[in-house]
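Title: Comparing notes on inverse folding

I've been comparing how different people in this forum approach sequence design from structure. To keep things fair, I'm posting one structure and asking everyone to reply with a full sequence. Here's the target:
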């Protein structure tokens, strides 16, 4: 495998092992309700959310651009014999999403984890217009993302170990976040990421990447939603349904497409 493939494979499996999405799953199941729906999840990753949604009786389509993540999701679907789950490999900004879905989910911080050559802010806006096109009239859009009032906590001029472990191929790795710098004026956080990887039968190597994230304000997101044809039904401050607090870093939004 090429170094980039080793890195993406390792990250997919370590993310699957270490990231707990229990509260997100409970939140999305509660907001969708018990009536079976046609649900589209963009950025489904290894199936942490789309698999339990299908198990709950929803007809789910999951899309992701990462083939390593999708293989994990596909393995779960096969093991559980999930006929209600369909997986798609595609770019969220260019691949067709289909039409007449009852609900679209932009969760797990997708707004802040886009992989694209687009202008980041334009890419974020485009997601809402694409969601409107994919939904039936009065369909539901669920958006879950970090929405801090200030970006002070993202200034980190040091280096910290974010993830460490061994994947299913025996590759041991460490994932570091290096020197993030926040710009309050542009609402961007820039920094570097470093992977130090040792394959089971190979020499240790390092992969360095750059990271740029745009953190939209809640007001910006509300404007984008309105322009895309959505009415905001509710805004929560977390996965447990708590009231939104501007000091809190999370926002869970329930939106309805116009007739």
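Reply #1:
Here's my take.
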């Amino acid at each position: 495998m090429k170094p980039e493939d080793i890195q993406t494979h390792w990250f997919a499996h370590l993310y699957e092992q270490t990231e707990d999405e229990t509260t997100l799953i409970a939140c999305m199941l509660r907001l969708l309700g018990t009536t079976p729906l046609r649900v589209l999840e963009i950025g489904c990753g290894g199936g942490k959310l789309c698999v339990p949604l299908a198990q709950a009786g929803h007809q789910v389509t999951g899309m992701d651009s990462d083939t390593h993540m999708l293989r994990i999701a596909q393995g779960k679907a096969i093991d559980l014999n999930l006929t209600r789950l369909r997986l798609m490999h595609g770019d969220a900004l260019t691949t067709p999403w289909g039409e007449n879905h009852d609900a679209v989910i932009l969760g797990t911080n997708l707004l802040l984890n886009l992989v694209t050559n687009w202008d980041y802010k334009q890419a974020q806006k485009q997601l809402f217009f694409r969601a409107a096109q994919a939904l039936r009239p009065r369909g539901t859009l669920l958006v879950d993302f970090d929405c801090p009032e200030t970006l002070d906590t993202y200034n980190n001029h040091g280096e910290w170990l974010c993830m460490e472990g061994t994947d299913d191929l025996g590759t041991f790795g460490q994932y570091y976040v290096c020197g993030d710098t926040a710009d309050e004026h542009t609402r961007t956080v820039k920094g570097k990421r470093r992977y130090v990887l040792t394959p089971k039968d190979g020499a240790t190597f390092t992969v360095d990447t750059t990271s740029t994230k745009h953190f939209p304000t809640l007001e910006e997101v509300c404007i984008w939603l309105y322009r895309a044809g959505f009415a905001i039904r509710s805004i929560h401050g977390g996965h447990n349904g708590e009231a939104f607090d501007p000091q809190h870093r999370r926002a869970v939004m329930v939106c309805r497409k116009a007739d």
